[in-house]
Structure formats: C-alpha cells, structure tokens
Design brief:
alpha+beta; Alpha-Beta Plaits; 3 helices
Length: about 70
C-alpha cells in the first residue's frame, strides 16, 4: 500500500463532494483518507500500485456523459 495525492478540484458542488465521499467509502482499495494543506487535494492510503490508483482516480471524475446530460 502507498499514499497518493488525489486532486479533487473537480468536486466543486455539494453533489460532487457527496459523490466523492461515497466513492471513497465504497472502495475496498482505499484504506485511509487524509486532509492536506491544500484544500483541493486529499492524501489517499491506497492498496494498489500507481497505475491502479491513476485508473481509479480518473473513474471518480465526472465524465463526458455526465457533462452532456
């Protein structure tokens, strides 16, 4: 397991923050979430490698299909 920084600047609305919270709670790979000095970044204790984390983090962000709806 490793600690990675998760940029959450995309989660500007209350709805996006709620979605992010539930995604973090639901993930079996997230073992801990920590605040950082920067408001738009969380430190994530993640059970996986850097590539897994990158894929997982990208899946959290709203996609094109949500932007169009």
């Amino acid at each position: 397991m490793s600690v990675y920084e998760l940029d959450i600047s995309w989660a500007a609305t209350a709805n996006e923050r709620r979605h992010l919270r539930w995604e973090l709670l639901a993930s079996e790979k997230v073992l801990g979430v920590f605040l950082t000095a920067r408001e738009e970044v969380l430190a994530i204790l993640f059970a996986g490698d850097y590539l897994d984390f990158g894929t997982w983090a990208k899946a959290l962000e709203p996609g094109l299909h949500e932007a169009l709806s």
